[in-house]
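Memo subject: From amino acid sequence to discrete backbone structure tokens
Action wanted: Derive the backbone structure tokens from the amino acid sequence.
How to read it: Take the token row as a discrete description of the fold.
Attached in line: The record itself begins immediately under this heading.
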Amino acid sequence: MYASFFGLKQEPFSIAPDPRYLFMSKRHREALAHLLYGVNGGGGFVLLSGEIGAGKTTVCRCFLEQIPKRCNVAYIFNPKLTVLELLKSICEEFDVALPQGPGPATVKDYLDPLNEFLLRMHASGQNSVLIIDEAQMLSAEVLEQLRLLTNLETNERKLLQIVLIGQPELRTMLARPDLEQLAQRVIARFHLKALSEAETQQYIRHRLAVAGMTRGMPFDRQALERIHALTRGVPRRINLLCDRAMLGAYARGTHRVSRPIIDKAASEVFGRVEPRAARRAAPPRIRWLIAGLLFATAVAAAIGYAVLTWRSGAQTAAASAPAAAASGAAAATAASAASAANAVVPPAAASMPPGRGASGAAAASLDRPAGAAAHAARSGPREKAVAAGSTTVVQAARATADDELRGPAEARPPRQNPR
């Protein structure tokens, strides 16, 4: 419908497994190489698994186009069969004549002509390949019968090569203990993953080129990024979304498929937009921008914490400096006063006669006020001030000593300071 509008020869995003549109990414090339190796591997099993819509069937169709002519291929695309139904389908694919008996056919009725056919093909230099798609639907009984088919062999090689293609559940099934014998006969296995963002863009360009695109790219950069975010790189989902988006652009009459058109198409195809997938597959430039903002915030927080710590330390040091200076000054003043008192009032208690005690020592030391006054007269201003204060202390001590010698009855008021 929209092919001619965009200058295309045919619609490029069909979900049919057309080998012409196979995008040979690195993963798809490896998957195809495993299948081709299995054909010449001498028998056994080859396992190809992948997510839903990852392109397994398309790789298989490409493999069928490249398979050597000397190979006889039987392709089973609906494996939900019983053992007898599977053997009958294999014989029909290889054009093996089925037995015509009166009673119901048995397993032996199918195995004998099949074994004869495989021996005849081997003698003529031809290989026989059995491909089973959607192999995750096989029952354990059918898988065991397939293993027994690989027992058909000669001294050089096995007569039947079996390729199993299925979803990830197939790998889980083969890991079961009861299928260990089959798992040991797998000679090659490969798991096909989804496309990366760059491969998604290459995939879209590849399909447009195969469809005969002669104009410019209809999807802009933001639309391509959005397609990968919504489809998670699964080719079938990419085909569904791009086909509906180009149809929406055709309905609007525009040759450019923008991000709003992609979102509208996603809501129609997938039911609703998946924001979780969009966040998980955010564009690289957005991820780098977020990382840069987080780093800048962390650096700013570290610098702010360092500045606050430095300021707090400086304020504490400034507040403690005056207190330390005052304490030092007080200590110096107290030391000076103690030195001056020791110089003016020397201890004399040792020279007093017994029985007089401290009062007698004080009275004996206070008998020389004139000497202190004379010493003050010979000293400077500071020494004079100290001497004057010392004289006052001496006079008060003398009065106290006289009161103690006279007793309580003769107590008298203390003398007034002459100054």
Notes: The beta strands are 44-50, 71-76, 127-132, 161-166, 186-192. Residues 275-282, 340-379, 381-390, 408-412 have pLDDT under 50 and may be disordered. Residues 28 and 365 are 117 Å apart (CA to CA). Residues 342-406 form one domain.
